[in-house]
Automatic annotation (TrEMBL), chain A:
Entry protein name: Proteasome subunit alpha type
Matching InterPro entries: Ntn_hydrolases_N, Proteasome_alpha, Proteasome_alpha-type, Proteasome_alpha1, Proteasome_asu_N, Proteasome_sua/b
Assigned GO CC terms: cytoplasm; nucleus; proteasome core complex, alpha-subunit complex
GO biological process: proteasome-mediated ubiquitin-dependent protein catabolic process
Subunit structure comment from the entry: The 20S proteasome core is composed of 28 subunits that are arranged in four stacked rings, resulting in a barrel-shaped structure. The two end rings are each formed by seven alpha subunits, and the two central rings are each formed by seven beta subunits.
Superkingdom, natural source: Eukaryota
Compartments reported by the entry: Cytoplasm; Nucleus
UniProtKB/TrEMBL annotation, chain B:
Record protein name field: Proteasome subunit beta
Keyword Nucleus belongs to the record: yes
Domain of life: Eukaryota
Summary of the function given for this chain in its UniProt record: Non-catalytic component of the proteasome, a multicatalytic proteinase complex which is characterized by its ability to cleave peptides with Arg, Phe, Tyr, Leu, and Glu adjacent to the leaving group at neutral or slightly basic pH. The proteasome has an ATP-dependent proteolytic activity.
Gene3D superfamilies reported in the protein's UniProt record: Glutamine Phosphoribosylpyrophosphate, subunit 1, domain 1
PANTHER family in UniProt: METALLOPROTEASE TLDD (PTHR32194), PROTEASOME SUBUNIT BETA TYPE-1 (PTHR32194:SF2)
Subcellular location: Cytoplasm; Nucleus
Assembly and interaction partners: Component of the proteasome complex.
Keyword Nucleus set for record: yes
PROSITE patterns according to UniProt: PROTEASOME_BETA_1 (PS00854), PROTEASOME_BETA_2 (PS51476)
Keywords, in A-Z order: Cytoplasm, Nucleus, Proteasome
Phylogenetic placement of the source organism: Eukaryota, Viridiplantae, Streptophyta, Embryophyta, Bryophyta
InterPro entries: Ntn_hydrolases_N (IPR029055), Proteasome_bsu_CS (IPR016050), Proteasome_sua/b (IPR001353), Proteasome_suB-type (IPR023333)
A Pfam cross-reference name: Proteasome
């Protein structure tokens, strides 16, 4: 993605029919540390890689509770994500006040997508630089959605966004068919495996990842570090890592890591690509 | 309309007060009581909902759980009460998102007062008693008027049976005046089961003479173990 004369503001089309500013915003999502989501018939699990800018600082908060039945994981400009989560919380509270029932996940996702679209069509605004994985439960069951800076949204069985998310996506693509019937514990283990792919060399611990779960009869909760550490330790037991390790070797190509995702593209399951130029036409 | 300095006319135009006009309010009756103990709080309300001389239902709860440690009982116009409860719930959700914890009872007490005064010129027709455990785990009871004036005390009652119940509570619980210095414990020396029994007695008595109180009483007990609920039948006449 090279600089050109049509990328100065979001209200300028390129001759190829692209809005470069929006695509650059989606690049910002790819630069953020990874966020992963997967769902079964009864639960949705979100996991995030916690990147601390230095040893002295705390890490960015990437998992947010929106309501008892909805939570999000974000990748990209987390400040934009905070603003969006405040909007989402407010919408949920208002809906509950007026209709005395929880806001269906799909509706909230559409509202966020519409809000994002506005920023792609105003010269005095810029697109949000954050991608959201929205996990929620409503009358129609558990759902996982992705919200893009472009204003597009997709529903997924499982997906990953952010840097080195391709490694996680490869793992998810291999395993997603079994997710529907997974128990909560199995689902969390799958999520942690996917996070492990994104971390690649680093040891997985409760310090560098976060997990959140929402499910039937279980409100959205972000796991505390003790529970999380217990899950991580249980990973050591069930290992099919040999196959995974090999995949990881192939993925890792330091020079191309961030750009790789553009061609890779593709979510798993329902919905088309979540990123890349072809997004515009979807 | 005051015309203080104008000469009084021989005959002012008669104004007619005959004929009911529409009122935005109705009184659904009912009584609420709360008693605070050293480590518990009991909040109770009857379950009758009336309008005029008719009963709308015998089984309506005037008690609302706002937080884990805080319960609101309100008598008056139940439509306003419901709206007030929803308002507080929404505000509490916002607080939880911002502070990652539940509101304490004293904080909720202040919020309720502000919420009521916000509508000073079109009030919530709601007579509230807020009960729960404070930050130290001691029982607290806050009592309100319709526009938010409030006070913490050891016990309180509001609603149609208030005047029948309050003297009995005064007699039994004899709380220290809030004006006394140094400030004294604003809770009662009763045990939890004694307080519950007292509540049952007071409601049974109020139901005898107050036509708007009866059918049943719902009693909520908050202590460090959590929240418990009891019901007792009252006279249905």
């Amino acid at each position: 993605m090279f600089r050109n004369q049509y990328d100065t503001d979001v209200t300028t089309w390129s001759p190829a029919g692209r809005l470069h500013q929006v695509e650059y915003a989606m690049e910002a999502v790819k630069q953020g540390s990874a966020a992963i989501g997967l769902r079964s018939k009864t639960h949705v699990v979100l996991a995030a890689v916690n990147k601390a800018s230095s040893e002295l600082s705390s890490h960015q908060k990437k998992l947010f509770k929106i309501d008892n039945h909805i939570g999000i994981a974000m990748a990209g400009l987390t400040a934009d994500g905070r603003v969006l989560s405040r909007y989402m919380r407010s919408e949920c509270i208002n809906h509950k006040f007026v209709y005395e029932s929880p806001l269906p996940v799909g509706r909230l996702v559409v509202q966020v997508a519409d809000k994002a679209q506005v920023c792609t069509q105003r010269s005095w605004k810029r697109p949000y630089g954050v991608g959201l994985l929205v996990a929620g439960l409503d009358e129609t069951g558990p759902h996982l959605y992705q919200n893009c800076p472009s204003g597009n949204y997709f529903e997924f069985h499982a997906f990953a966004i952010g840097s080195r998310s391709q490694a996680a996506k490869t793992y998810l693509e291999r395993k997603f068919e079994s997710f529907m019937d997974c128990s909560k514990e199995e689902l969390v283990r799958h999520a942690l495996h996917a996070v492990k792919e994104s971390l690649q060399e680093e040891e997985l611990s409760s310090a560098n990842c976060g997990v959140a779960i929402v499910g039937v009869g279980e409100p959205f909760v972000i796991l505390d570090s003790k529970t999380l550490q217990a899950y991580i330790e249980s990973l050591e037991g069930a290992k099919d890592d040999q196959a995974t390790k090999i995949e990881v070797e192939e993925e890792r190509n330091p020079a191309v890591i961030e750009r790789q995702d553009v061609s890779g593209g593709g979510g798993v399951g329902v919905g088309a690509e979540g990123e890349g130029p072809s997004d515009m036409e979807t | 309309m005051s015309m203080v300095f104008a000469p009084r006319l021989a005959e002012s135009a008669p104004t007619s007060h005959v004929g009911a006009s529409w009122s935005p309010y109705d009184n659904n009756g009912g009584t609420c009581v709360a008693i605070a103990g050293a480590d518990y709080c009991v909040i109770a309300a009857d379950t009758r909902m009336s309008t005029g001389f008719s009963i709308l239902t015998r089984d309506y709860s005037k008690i609302h759980h706002i937080t884990e440690k805080c319960v609101l009982a309100s008598s008056g116009f139940q439509a306003d009460v419901r709206s007030l409860q929803k308002n507080l719930d929404a505000r509490h959700q916002i607080y939880q998102h911002q502070h990652s914890k539940q509101m304490s009872c004293p904080a909720m007490a202040q919020l309720l007062s502000n919420t009521l005064y916000y509508k000073r010129f079109f009030p919530y027709y709601s007579f509230n008693v807020l009960g729960g455990l404070d930050n130290e785990g001691k029982g607290c009871v806050y009592t309100y008027d319709a526009v938010g004036s409030y006070e913490r005390s050891g016990y309180s009652s509001q609603g149609s049976g208030q005047t029948l119940i309050m003297p009995v509570l005064d007699n039994q619980l004899k709380s220290a005046s809030p004006l006394v210095l140094p400030p004294r414990e604003s809770s009662t020396p009763l045990t939890e089961s004694e307080a519950v029994d007292l509540i049952k007695d007071t409601f049974a008595s109020a139901a005898e003479r107050d036509i708007y109180t009866g059918d049943g009483v719902e009693i909520v007990i908050i202590n460090k173990e959590g929240i418990r609920r009891e019901t007792m039948a009252l006279k249905r006449d």
